[in-house]
Amino acid sequence: MIRSSIIIFCIILLVSCVKSDANYETLMCGTVVNYQDLSSKIQLSTPDFFKWENYFTEIDSTGAFKIKFTKYYPGQIWFRYNKSFIKIYVHPGDSIVFNYDAASFPESEFEFENSTFPNQLGQEYEQIWKEIPYAKYDSITAHGSFSEFTVFIDSEEKRLERNLQDFIKSKHLSSHFISWAKTDIKFHSANELIRYRWLNPYYNGKEFNKVYPLDFNMDFLNNLNFSNIGALNSEKYNDFLQEYYVMLLHDAYKEGFIVSENPDLFEKLDYINSNTEGIIHDYFLAIMYGEIIVKSDWRTIDTITSKLFSSLAYEPAREFVRNYYETAQYFHFNKETLITKVKEKSIKTIINEIISENKGKLIYINIWAVWCSPCITSMPRLREMQDIFTEDDISFVGFIVNSNEMKSKEIISKYNLKGKQYFLSKNQSEELKELIGYSGIPRYVLIDNKGNYVSRDALVPGTQLKEQLQDLLEE
What we know:
This protein is of the alpha/beta class. It has 3 domains: about 10-115, Immunoglobulin-like (Sandwich), CATH 2.60.40.1120; about 135-330, no CATH class; about 335-475, Glutaredoxin. It has 15 helices and 16 strands. It has helices at about 120-125, 135-145, 145-170, 175-205, 235-255, 265-275, 280-295, 300-310, 315-335, 345-355, 375, 380-390, 405-415, 425-435, 465-475, and strands at about 10, 25-35, 40-45, 55-60, 65-70, 75-80, 85-90, 95-100, 110, 115, 335-340, 360-370, 395-400, 420-425, 445, 455. It has a 6-stranded mixed beta sheet, covered by helices on one side. The chain has a 5-stranded mixed beta sheet with strand order 1-7-6-3-4. A 5-stranded mixed beta sheet has the order 5-2-8-9-10, with no helix packed on it. Strand 13, helix 13 and strand 14 form a beta-alpha-beta unit. About 30% of the residues are buried. Residues about 1-20 and about 110-120 have low confidence and may be disordered.
């Protein structure tokens, strides 16, 4: 059996899984056999555009599961179960039946629509990328001219394309997958070429952000198709766009279109808006909008959003801006929820301050993270608890560990969580783990109205917790 947990299934299947009318709404359902723990969640991750979205579902008592997710373009999704995952290739609007054996996941064979496809398929696709001569890459990057490096990259691209053709001949693959795989190879080459502009000076001890190699040029851009929407699912394409974004702004400064070497967000926004088009335009504007949300006040965000939104053509970019705007709006108008960063304080000090601020109240602490599927699936039940009890009786507090701040805010606004949320640093997260004594999350901590720990492993949100809290309030 194959031991790799990174597998790509290059399959597009249309099956009867109660399909949605929405063009982008995709459905996966199926059955898990030999599962041991119903608390194990299934997670799907979709890398549409440059924004990853995570979807979670539970396995019911019969082993069945169902999960709906948005997919804008044909490409990969990550199917995660416990600590392992596989990659599956899907098409927007698919309804996919996916059955597997939990006891041997991900090494087991997987059943799609009553047909069994060996997982060797994914391993064989991975072989396309084997034997890349990284030592030779580094040597030519450091010591070769750009012309010599270009010849080397062209030969590597042809080798990868031959590998892909051999793979295509041996399998029955969709045209969508073939197009996606070719794009992956094409932008792998483009990313290596554009990186030469700073890696060559860097390897030679020069100021790589000041000087380009003498014969460096961007002629290779003429061979790229920037209007290929499906390419947004390619990791190689996204890597290239990040490099291209940095280079574009650097060149704008060198040529005098941007007056400052470190331009502010609005100077960059104006330049990108006027000098790019198509997917590139929307991609870069969305990146900058994320920066604006983090660094600007509400009035600035509110003023710029409508203008920016009207200039975006592609729905993933519009959805990205819409979600970020709604999150910023939530935190501006909902004063009951605060996200607090206290990097300079120890966890013991923070907890003592929480107890001091909430004298006479019960305190229920939720320790969670944006990447934790059980944490997210418990959020609706936590919100129900917050509706049942008044803030005069119970203070609900969140400790967010090892997470992205903006994604944390999206989750808080999505589930309309009340109470103060503490965004912890990496060191604070480790200190909290040691103090409370947990190995996994979510973890809940209950403190009584006298400031004493009732439990450092409290009940999860639900009926039993509701009854316990009511009993404590009546004492």
